[in-house]
Design brief:
Elements lengths: L1 H11 L1 E3 L7 E3 L3 H7 L2 H32 L6 H9 L6 H12 L6 H8 L7 H4 L1 H25 L4 H9 L4 H12 L1 H15 L4 H6 L11 H11 L3 H31 L1
Antiparallel strand pairs: 1-2
Length: 266
């Protein structure tokens, strides 16, 4: 970890473009100045925030719903739990291909077939709603993780508490919002912390489905670094973006770790 980090820091202060090997040498802060002065960076940061925020909302809400459903006994619950958790173990590239070619394809996808069945025109999701489509794909992958954490936390609730509340006339929604949800506060904090750190580096789903487009509609910080480093061959510029990404990820990690630590100490 330390060697790539040191090389990234060093290259971020170098004038190093593989398309112009003759122009090399110290660049000072010029890579950072050029990056911070470019509108593309701020668009990528906003897209990153939108992606992380959207996935967190959907995965946490979806995880709570799934955990609440599977907390109740029903025939085949064990097998159903395995099926619900399965998307988390699918590689991001594979899941993106499934969503792109099987589910959301405007001609051959299941969504297009369903819309045609109701007499409605097909939707090209990755053109009309590119960011929403990426958020849906990534949330589908991370919802099982949230559900697994929530189900584990719900197992530690004393069943007698819920039984007593039910005897007093509390409905399921009252028990969920006043007993279960407060108990899951720490688990929700852990899920948000872990997901936020990993979601900042979302890349494969964007590369496979939209390639950062249309335009810059789905270009996040990780994909912007890829564009600069491996398509434009500007290693120094991309390394400066990498350093910014590292600082952003560490800032998010420290914030959530302190928040969760305070919650656990309370």
């Amino acid at each position: 970890m330390l060697v790539p980090l040191a090389m990234t820091l060093w290259f971020s202060f170098q004038r190093y473009n593989l398309l112009n090997p003759q122009s090399r040498g110290p660049a000072g802060w010029s890579n950072y100045a050029a990056l911070l002065g470019e509108a593309t960076l701020w668009t990528a940061l906003l897209n990153t925030i939108a992606l992380v925020g959207g996935v967190l909302v959907l995965s946490v809400i979806g995880g709570l719903v799934v955990a609440a459903i599977f907390d109740e006994p029903f025939p085949g619950r064990r097998a159903a739990r395995l099926l619900v958790i399965a998307p988390f173990f699918v590689m991001p590239t594979v899941s993106a291909l499934v969503w792109k070619n099987l589910l959301l394809h405007p001609v051959n996808g299941l969504l297009a077939a369903a819309l045609h069945g109701f007499g409605l025109p097909a939707i090209d999701a990755f053109t009309d709603w590119p960011m929403s489509s990426i958020v849906l794909i990534v949330a589908w992958q991370w919802t099982p993780f949230a559900a697994l954490i929530f189900m584990t936390s719900m197992q530690s609730i004393d069943p007698s508490i819920g039984e007593a509340a039910a005897l007093d006339g509390a409905g399921w929604h009252t028990r969920f919002f006043h007993l279960v949800l407060p108990h899951l506060g720490r688990a929700i904090g852990v899920v948000v912390m872990i997901e936020s750190i990993f979601l900042l580096s979302t890349f494969a789903e964007i590369l496979v489905t939209t390639s950062g487009g249309p335009g810059l509609a789905t270009t996040n910080l990780a994909y912007l670094i890829y564009l600069k480093a491996l398509l434009q061959y500007d290693v120094g510029y991309a390394s400066a973006g990498g350093v910014i990404a590292i600082l952003l990820a560490n800032a998010v990690a420290v914030f959530f770790m302190r928040t969760v630590s305070r919650s656990l100490a309370a």
